[in-house]
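Notes from hallway chat w/ T.B., transcribed later so I don't forget. T.B. wanted the structure written out for a chain they're using in a teaching module, and asked if we could keep both sequence and structure tokens in one place. Agreed to drop them here.
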Amino acid sequence: MLSPAIFCMTPESQIKEWFKTINIAGVPLVPQELLNAIYSGPFVTLGKEEFSNSQNANIQKWSAYIKGSVNRQAFFERALDWASKGNIDDYMSIHRNDKNINELKKYFNSVIDWISGVFIDVESEMQGLEWGRLYEEYHKKAYDSKKVSAEICKLYSDPYIKNRKGIFEFILGSSVDTKLLEVRIFDEATKKAVYAAQTAKAEKKGRSNCSHCAIGHDANKEKIWSLSDMDADHVAAWSKGGATSAKNCEMLCKTHNRAKGNR
């Protein structure tokens, strides 16, 4: 058994390894439980009283945005993660002997209040998002919560969106990055049918089956591309109301499709 004096003089990196070794045969500690043990002191005690207390009246509100168990330190970990910008270990080392957690609570509540102020409707997909990062990136921008709510409702009802969790960052980022939504792409049957019709029409006219190549002035003006060399594209961009349907599908050579982007 190590004496308290030796324990206190031991480098924190070595203490971490001891705790990991001790817990191999027992119930494994989650990372935050391990850090709590390593940096035990007034700061951890106060932090656990605030964020690891299942009787805290705020837990229900926080649970809308934070995933995990209060008893397994998920809320304390998230508060530390947000305040430290992801450097929990260093943050706990610096504040280990603090007699209050005012800074931690202030930052945590700022994030929570910002989320609930921008998004007045609580959706299940909000739980566990990277709210600390999103707060840092977007909290200085102004949002109309009623317009945000209407936009969320619209996106939730869109059958082409596969990733609802991406809706919130999509809106925060001015509804530009459609990759966040994983918009449903054209299926193989649609692509093959459109390719066949488009190619037959192009061959009849002696032009390329890529409409962008056909209006060019280089060697590809009459080139017939294979299906594997082409990508399906929305004629009218999804973000501008275009549907993921055969009527709104056009096959373009890979070069022109990538150049078109979201126009």
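Follow-up for T.B.: Residues 4-116 form one domain. Might be a good example for the class.
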